[in-house]
Amino acid sequence: MNGAKDTTNGASAAASGAASPDDGLERVSAARERFAAGADTVHGVRPEILMSWYRCREQYEVDPDLDRAPAAAAGTAHSMEHDVVFAELGGLAARAAGEVDGLDGLVTVADSDGRVLASWGSRRVLHLAEDHNLAAWSAWSEWASGTNGTGTALESHRPVLVRGPEHWCQGFHHWSSAGVAVRDVVTRDPLGALQISCWQTPLSDAVLPWLHTVAASTEAKLRRRAHHTGTLLAAALADARVPPATPLAAVDTAGKVVLANGEAAVLLGTPADTPACAPAHRWTPQVRALPQLARRATERARQDPCWSGSTLVYVPFLDTPVSVAVRPVFDGSQVLGALLAFGPPDPAGSGEPLDEPGPRSAEPRPYRDRVIALRDDRWVLLDPREIRFAEVDHNNVWLTSDQGRLLAVARGLDRLEQELGGKGFMRVHRRFLVNLGRVREIEQGFKGALFLATDTRPRETVPVARRHIPYVRQALGL
After folding, report:
1. CATH number of residue 414's parent domain
2. Is residue 214 included in any domain, yes or no?
3. CA-derived radius of gyration, the chain
4. I need a labelling partner for 323 at 20 to 30 A (CA). Which of 114, 287, 330, 342 fits?
5. 279 phi and psi angles, rounded to 5 deg
6. Does the N-terminal peptide bond of residue 458 adopt cis geometry, omega within 30 degrees of 0?
7. At what angle do helices 207-239 and 80-100 cross, to 10 degrees?
8. pLDDT band at residue 446, thresholds of 50, 70 and 90?
9. Residues 386 and 261 occupy one common structural domain
10. Domain count, the chain
11. How far from 207 is each of 128, 132, 161, 363, 448, CA to CA, in Å?
12. What integer pLDDT is reported at residue 2 of this predicted model?
């Protein structure tokens, strides 16, 4: 009787035209073709996939006909947290590969740039993956390879599943992939990603909960480590030698307050003399510039362990800029955060800059030839030669310069490109405008892909969109 009931329900479903999973993917495939052809509105696509398609088409200009991931460029420097994550994910991936092997599955670990570090799986699927460069030292970020488990997870704060034609690049439509990013518990920046992929086989419903557990367990270990770093920051403040009554605070790499003395607590709007070592318990200061200041200081300290600096920050409590001296705090070679010593109000705007000045021309240039940018609450006048490249984020334009990473006053990359006309800058990508005079190396990737490396250390690279490659080659005499 139960069997008859099951048969009846199946017949009813067929008669009513209920869609099968294959029907759903066929609709997704048709929607992707329309979207890749320029349609702005498509239906039947999950929101997280559609948002990824928008990024691939509008921001990253990924070729939808790509059938192999490009070779990865040099990645960013890895911190101790990265090493913890890679070791943890590597062990989990090796164990998971045995379970996924029967499904012709592949497990990969990637860094925060989407660069695959290692992969595990059956010999057959490893061989299939090589055909698409789903292997070590290939680039699976969204900007390099479109919508995929690794790249889309790095853009998201939860596990993601990408089925067949949901991949932006047509060459990957035989794969189903699911990924999760592990994030720094302090800054919430991605540290690495784990992906499970199957060839022409749907992924199990248990994959996403398993990935969620993987990320949660790994981040739990990072939280325990971050609690220890908070303790070290509080100890550094207690040991600091500063004049009496100096407002002094210890902040982590995200600008959250771990400990502040009474004088600093008044300026920052946080509790006084109360350590907050655990990341979840740290306080957000009422000084909007501190997160950016902490990130810049962390970058500078990683480049130069002997560095310290000072700048001005606007303090709402006093309604005026205040000078602040910045001294990084280390545990071995690892930057934990910084000690901030606040000085008297400085409405005149004096004080040393946080970043060292870049190269200056022998003869002063007219101010109308300068590019105007913002650093905290101050205007910065940049000689165009100080700018290495500009990157657009929505309608904001960020300048990577010898004065640090600054927000351009110009709204939109098109307007900045007009301002810099005739000054050696070239649009190489929908997102990037590059000073060709600061390019020192050209990296050639798979199928003629190009990456421009600037004249700095550590290395920084900018991708060249496919349609811009002939013009870049001509401009650089390649």
Report:
1. 2.40.50.1020
2. yes
3. 25
4. 330
5. -55, -40
6. yes
7. 160
8. low
9. no
10. 3
11. 21, 22, 9, 63, 36
12. 40
